Amino acid sequence: MNTISTNRSLVNTIIAIFLLIFAAFISDSKINPNLSRDVLGTDTTLYNVTSIVDGDTIKVSDSQEQFTVRLIGIDTPETKDPRKEVECFGEEATLYLTKLLDDNSIILKSDSTQDDVDRYGRLLRYAFLQDGTNVNKTMIQDGYAYEYTYSKPYYYQKEFIDAQHFARNGRLGLWSGVCD
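^ thats the sequence. predicted structure below, dont judge the formating
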């Protein structure tokens, strides 16, 4: 009887340790970064969209210069990579982003948890329409982009993951079976 009690205590202790480690992992995971809104940039400049490179990259200008912007937290099928063929749904993603941004000025927001520019010199930003619509999230939620975490959690990560679940569960765009 004493051996059973000791074994049961040992098992309970191991389970408790496992649960503590798991809880620590979850609290620090990419699923729930618990980042403060302070990580977002405060720039309210309106940028003119000058061209759509592909479904996750745009060119914008202010009154003085032009910038290439890679949208944070999303990835779309390739259409411009010279090393790859155009991927399924890449053209649709590019056309959808074009439709979203057509004749619109946008606000770009940086995220201090991410680099300011990527290895290609593109600004890393969230894009917002003047009505507050998060373009990055809309691309995912409507099924035209995947949630993409480059190396570390970002401010809107949980929202973007939820948006991808919504699109996948609704079989929207990329998730409609067209690319199976």
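The beta strands are 46-54, 57-61, 66-71, 74-75, 105-109, 123-129, 146-147.
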